[in-house]
Amino acid sequence: xxxxxxxxxxxxxxxxxxxxxxxxxxxxxxxxxxxxxxxxxxxxxxxxxxxxxxxxxxxxxxxxxxxxxxxxxxxxxxxxxxxxxxxxxxxxxxxxxxxxxxxxxxxxxxxxxxxxxxxxxxxxxxxxxxxxxxxxxxxxxxxxxxxxxxxxxxxxxxxxxxxxxxxxxxxxxxxxxxxxxxxxxxxxxxxxxxxxxxxxxxxxxxxxxxxxxxxxxxxxxxxxxxxxxxxxxxxxxxxxxxxxxxxxxxxxxxxxxxxxxxxxxxxxxxxxxxxxxxxxxxxxxxxxxxxxxxxxxxxxxxxxxxxxxxxxxxxxxxxxxxxxxxxxxxxxxxxxxxxxxxxxxxxxxxxxxxxxxxxxxxxxxxxxxxxxxxxxxx
Length: 378
Hints:
Layout lengths: L1 E6 L19 E6 L4 E6 L11 H15 L7 E3 L2 H8 L12 E3 H9 L4 H12 L2 H15 L21 H14 L11 E4 L7 E4 L4 H4 L3 E9 L3 E10 L2 E10 L2 H18 E6 L5 E3 L10 E4 L4 E6 L7 E7 L11 E8 L5 E8 L8 H14 L1
Antiparallel strand pairs: 1-15, 2-3, 2-10, 4-5, 6-7, 8-9, 9-10, 11-14, 12-13, 13-17, 15-16, 16-17
Helix pairs in contact: 2-4, 3-4, 4-5
């Protein structure tokens, strides 16, 4: 007989009204990182020139090689004339010189903090031999991540009709970056970068992401700007356990992209909650039949996260559903029940629950007594 056990894991009673939000950005998306739920979107699949947001993928390629041990942060790369010419052409630069030997760590900081196009080419050539070969690596990684509407033709994001993406794909790429390279991702939070350059005084440059200076919870990610796509910004804000990612494009100024990004991030914090149940929290539930103990601990195999409107939080309830008492033998990690999260407005989610221990049988006499008691008392 299926039975529902109501449990009070959490009861939220937070008041507030979630207001509809708009943005002046032409394209935008707002993502709750842990739950992977999209909280706002606007023209999210419209093709854009990603500009320097391209550099997120450039860093991912390097981060992946570092993670595998195939590239070292202190490894030095020789700067080519092609890379040097980027700074001479007026692009955002780290200001490297031909034949300089620069560490991978400094090139990454030059890419991420100073948005140096010259550093991108130097790193791309150092890793793949040529920028063209590096772009093939970028596209292969984009495919692995699941970016369906993206193609990279260069490492820096300078304008090319064959270098395109969408804000949805960029949000996916940003989430992948943070999840897979948490230590290296910390470079994105640096507010300044000073490089002891060859043949001149040290150069200090500030991070172009103004949000880093506006909100202490912001720890990335990357700005971009091209005439055809306007000003863009992929931003990440971490508030306690919760992380939010926004990507916008098509604003007319740095000030506007900063303002609109902050508006989206604050909207999520004000109007929604991240609800979580951790996999290491064992849930004690009802009797199981004819075992040496009469309670069984159940657990989730993965942490559960979902985003929920604050104005409806008081309506949320949780129950464990299953056949109780459990009358079959089982092994540790066998699925025995489900946890159901729902409200009165039709919201419902279910997640499987698994046995935390093996079934332990009892002797025949105790089984007989249990059976008699069950027949008499139910």
